[in-house]
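Methods — Computational structure assignment.
A single polypeptide chain was analysed. Its primary sequence is given first, followed by the predicted tertiary structure written as structure tokens.
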Amino acid sequence: MANLSQEKRQRMLAFLETIRKEHKDDDEVLIALGEIESELNAKKYGLVWERHEEAVDVQMRDNIPVFTECADKEITTTTGGVNFLLEGDNLHSLRLLEKTHTGKIDVIYIDPPYNTENKDFIYDDAFVDKNDGFRHSKWLSFMNERLQIAKRLLSSSGVLIISIGYHEVHNLMVMCQEMFENKQVTCVTVQTSGGKPNGGFTFLQEYLVFITPTDFNPKTMSFTGGIERSPFEGLTLSTFDKTTRPNQTYPIFIDRETMHIIGVGKSLTERIAEGLYTGKPTDFVFDYDEAPDGSAALWPVSSKGADCVWRLISPRLLSDWAKGYIKISKNKSRNNPNEYSVQYLPEGVIKKIESGELPVIGTEENMPTLKFGKNQTVGSEIPTIWTEKEFFTTKGSSHVRNIFEDKRFPYPKPLEFITEILRATTNANSTILDFFAGSGTTGESVLELNLSDGGNRTFILCTNNQNDICSHITYPRLKTIISGIRENGSTYSNGIPANLKYYRTDFVSKDSDSLTDELLDHIKEMIQLEHGINLDGSQYLLVLTDEEADALEQHWDEYKDVKALYVSRNVLFTTEQNMLFGDVDIHIIPDDYFKFELQEVGESW
């Protein structure tokens, strides 16, 4: 069948060629025709949107973004690595992170605007609402530019996770599948509330989009494996009934005084074979009165009160009881008529016992039932549906309210939620980036994980300061978590030792007469960010000129604990200096932090 769109496109291109020949000497017409031809040959399948330029892009035409450290906000409570909070438009921060962290970020988690049409997405200083005909295109342009940089920041084994609502999840999935064509792109559904009515539907969920390597091997999450639990499981099997498995339909007799199994009754198969029951299997009624005196009859009934079958045939049940593989306890289900409940050990657990992997430490008092040491579940795969109530949005709200003792930030992501994401995707030394940091939950999650497993993870958080969010919420929250002291001086916790630097994005005009010197004033911030250190003039030293190298040589005896020197490649150490500094790590400062910008204005080549 004909491709009608392609045929129409070919006719238009042929017409353009005719026009091009007629105007072969008119450069303006030829340029315009080239642009039209490019649009006609543009992508015809996949996600297509109107691309928009942001005010932050325009600002970078004439200005170079830089970081300026706010020294009064620095927090130092340990000798470990340094975490960073970057205040400013995240696009400016991402452009600078490209200079320091390309290919170095292990995990990126972001919670961008959901574009709900309810004043959650600001584009060029204006809220995007349902009346904006380009609302989806603006959101896609906004996300595309940032995700392209995020892609470059990720290490080869890095993982990117994006929280998103139903409004844009479909667009985001297509965008990520096209952008990360050599990665896995997987959507996870997360129940975040008891329901939010909208248009006749109740929305219970949000989503996580995971972008991972194809050989991704997550760590065990607290709700997917590695959980300490009893190895015994319920003996009832509710997926079958007496008509499909009559040989597993029989009564178990429990002595009411000892709670021991004293026997079993005939199965439905045996009753039919022996002529004890002649009706239809579906009509067979469980008889609780056939138990011997002093005992109770247990029939296979589910927790919802429906007839089902036992998982074991009766000879296997009695054999497992003698081995201690069966557990009897009082029944607590209101819907189940049985006085007692019966549990058994699955084959996998029995194999762990026989191999010694699951230690037996004795038997229950006056029972053959075995007692065990620690038993943990296995499995680290990330499920695609999460229903844990700890992930409900209300949990995040109550947690942040406890930190501030007020309601200054509504609907933050729950701490447990972000912690589980990072538990699955990080290792002990990962660098984690969140460039939609909001209230700072990602930072707190990193600190909590380090506290729980002794890790040395570090974070970089980026957020603007709209409505004072960075200075009034993100920073005070992190300070409270690290110090254990709230803003009002009250005690919140014992604190979590950590170091934090606070940077603010500034700008240097490309037209400045002293551009090189002004950019040099911000090199320290870039070095600290790239290496995760504090250039304190004691352990970590900055040497930018030969004169500074000479001064350091003269006073070298005064420095007792130097760990590293960060030296401009324009500095040439003397033979004596090379010998003197030989036992210290020396890092050559790349002059390409701002090399492109300097080349652009003709101050470098």
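Note: The chain has a mean pLDDT of 90.
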